[in-house]
């Protein structure tokens, strides 16, 4: 690998990937002298693919990039739809997000209100060699919140504002350029609905559900959770077949805590979405309700839920106003309320799956990731999902989180 002048942790990259990365690095106008790869974050920060930071030193400056690498394990790729997910993210960073910001620029939206996302330096979408090179948001003082804690009210509101802007641009694009929007809609695929298209995937989810339910201590909760995951993913597929495309948007699709980064500028919170692998055309409430349920606790939701929904719709209207549109025209409040209930059951299945993985500590998560990367059969990962592998603190976190889901669903009439 000497021809690349690379240093550090890049042994798991193949020649095709290294060639592409080298090409992207050489395109940067800094007269590169040194390139160092290092592992990024802790186990459990990210589960779909490997993350590295690339530190690039040049005569004319330095650049830090975040490198996302797809798994090359054939069983892993089939089980977790790796090709589909990296293709989604490729489309989002190279086509959809730039188009959305161009809509804002053309309408004269102030720069401080433009949709924020990491600059994409390059995306290689050749299976099974996918890599994406992104701007390092840490350099802009963005950071992640603690995934084990509920997001505070002001952070939730900021994410809702980000969603409102993001979703509004789908409605704008439908009006201004429906042909391109429909092309995006057809290219992006819903990874969650894909689970219901395979009997093997549903069986896999059924086994996860069984193991997850076994650690739930409250018998009432245990009973309520029966078949919620497998039925939920089937319902997700059905909802997609029945959706009214007048009221859908390109959604983020995987709005858990680690997929947002935050910074404070002049006492104001700013948020930036990351990881668009689950993006697809769906109801705005699939993003909004998912984020509220997975990123907050029951106590915080109980105090703020209806105010949050009102706030989202108000911010949607504000963003649309730049384009001469109104929220009550493109996404009426009664439709929003109906979608909350329509999509809630399917979203609970996704929240249960995410919780079973995301609330593990770094040691437990590293076992899951190691098994995912070296799968010879689905059973290899199922062993790491067994409750016997969890620490008491993890079991307690999962019980509290899922108990909160159930109490919130009952309180807000979402079951």
UniProtKB/TrEMBL annotation:
Coiled coil: none annotated. InterPro entries: CHK_kinase-like, EcKL, Kinase-like_dom_sf. Pfam families: EcKL. Residues 132-322 form the CHK kinase-like domain. It comes from the Eukaryota. PANTHER family: PROTEIN KINASE-LIKE DOMAIN-CONTAINING. This is CHK kinase-like domain-containing protein. It comes from Heliothis virescens (Tobacco budworm moth).
């Amino acid at each position: 690998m000497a021809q690349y002048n690379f240093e550090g942790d890049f042994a798991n990259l193949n020649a095709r990937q290294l060639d592409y990365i080298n090409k992207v690095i050489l395109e940067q106008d800094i007269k590169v002298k040194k390139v160092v790869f290092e592992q990024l974050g802790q186990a459990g920060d990210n589960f779909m693919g490997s993350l590295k930071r690339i530190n690039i030193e040049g005569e004319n400056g330095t650049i830090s990039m975040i490198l996302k690498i797809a798994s090359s394990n054939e069983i892993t790729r089939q089980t977790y739809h790796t090709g589909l997910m990296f293709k989604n993210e490729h489309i989002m960073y190279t086509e959809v997000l730039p188009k959305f910001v161009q809509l804002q620029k053309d309408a004269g939206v102030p720069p401080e209100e433009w949709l924020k996302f990491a600059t994409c330096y390059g995306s290689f979408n050749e299976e099974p060699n996918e890599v994406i090179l992104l701007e390092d948001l840490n350099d802009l003082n963005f950071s992640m919140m603690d995934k084990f804690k509920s997001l505070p009210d002001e952070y939730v509101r900021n994410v809702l504002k980000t969603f409102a802007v993001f979703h509004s641009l789908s409605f704008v694009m439908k009006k201004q350029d429906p042909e391109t929007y429909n092309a995006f809609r057809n290219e992006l695929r819903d990874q969650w609905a894909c689970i219901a298209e395979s009997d093997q995937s549903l069986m896999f989810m059924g086994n996860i559900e069984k193991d997850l339910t076994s650690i739930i201590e409250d018998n009432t909760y245990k009973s309520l959770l029966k078949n919620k995951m497998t039925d939920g993913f089937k319902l997700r597929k059905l909802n997609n077949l029945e959706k009214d495309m007048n009221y859908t948007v390109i959604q983020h699709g995987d709005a858990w805590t680690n997929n947002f980064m935050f910074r404070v500028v002049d006492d104001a919170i700013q948020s930036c979405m990351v990881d668009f692998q689950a993006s697809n055309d769906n109801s705005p409430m699939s993003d909004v309700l998912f984020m509220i349920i997975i990123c907050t606790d029951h106590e915080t939701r109980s105090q703020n839920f209806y105010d949050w929904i009102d706030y989202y719709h108000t911010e949607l209207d504000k963003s649309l106003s730049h384009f001469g549109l109104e929220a009550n025209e493109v996404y009426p409040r009664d439709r929003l309320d109906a979608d909350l209930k329509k999509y809630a059951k399917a979203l609970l299945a996704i929240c249960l799956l995410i919780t079973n993985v995301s609330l593990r500590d770094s040691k437990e998560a590293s076992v899951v990731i190691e098994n995912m990367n070296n799968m010879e059969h689905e059973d290899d990962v199922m062993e790491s999902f067994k409750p016997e592998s969890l620490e008491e603190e993890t079991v307690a976190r999962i019980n509290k989180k899922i108990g909160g889901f159930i109490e919130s669903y009952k309180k807000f009439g979402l079951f």
